[in-house]
Automatic annotation (TrEMBL):
Coiled coil: none annotated. It comes from Lottiidibacillus patelloidae. This is DUF2269 domain-containing protein. It holds the Pfam family DUF2269. It comes from the Bacteria. The chain crosses the membrane at residues 6-26, 46-66, 72-90, 125-142. Keywords: Membrane, Transmembrane, Transmembrane helix.
Length: 145
C-alpha cells in the first residue's frame, strides 16, 4: 500500500512540473498567457502536495526497511527531491507569480518584454528541476549502489 501511494505521489508531484514549460510555450497573446500562468498557479498544489507525500512515503519505507538508509541511491534521491522542491518553491513559483503580476497590468494583447525576461530566468530553473526529477525516477527504478 505504501509503495502504491509513493508511486502515485511521484506522478502527482513530479509529473505536473513536466507540463509547466509546455504550458508556458503555447501562449501568443496576453490573454492566453494570463490563463496559462493562472493554470500553473492553480496546478502548483499538485507538485507541492505530491512531493511532500513522496518524501513521507519514501521515509516511511525507509523506516520499515532501515537498510535503505545505508544505500547511496536512497540518500541521493532524498537529497535531490529536497533540492528540486526548494528550487520549485523558492524560485519557480515566485517567478510565476511575478510574471502573472506583470502580465495582469498589461492593457494590450502584446506580451511585454518584462515577461520574456522573467521567463528567460525561469527556464534554466525549470530545466534543472525537471532534470533532477528524471534522475530521481531513474534512481527509484534501477536502485544502483
Amino acid at each position: 500500500m505504501l509503495l502504491s501511494i509513493h508511486i502515485l505521489s511521484a506522478i502527482a508531484g513530479i509529473g505536473a512540473t513536466f507540463l509547466f514549460p509546455f504550458i508556458l510555450a503555447l501562449p501568443k497573446k496576453v490573454s492566453e498567457l494570463t490563463l496559462a500562468l493562472r493554470l500553473i498557479q492553480k496546478g502548483a498544489n499538485y507538485p507541492k502536495f505530491g512531493s511532500i507525500l513522496l518524501l513521507l512515503t519514501g521515509l516511511g519505507m525507509g523506516a520499515l526497511n532501515t537498510d535503505l538508509f545505508l544505500k547511496g541511491w536512497y540518500i541521493t534521491a532524498i537529497v535531490l527531491l529536497l533540492a528540486a522542491v526548494l528550487i520549485y518553491v523558492i524560485k519557480i513559483l515566485p517567478g510565476i507569480q511575478n510574471a502573472l503580476n506583470v502580465v495582469c497590468e498589461v492593457k494590450s494583447e502584446e506580451i511585454p518584454e518584462t515577461y520574456w525576461t522573467i521567463k528567460k530566468g525561469l527556464k534554466p530553473l525549470m530545466i534543472t528541476a525537471s532534470t533532477i526529477d528524471v534522475f530521481i525516477i531513474i534512481l527509484m527504478i534501477w536502485k544502483p549502489l
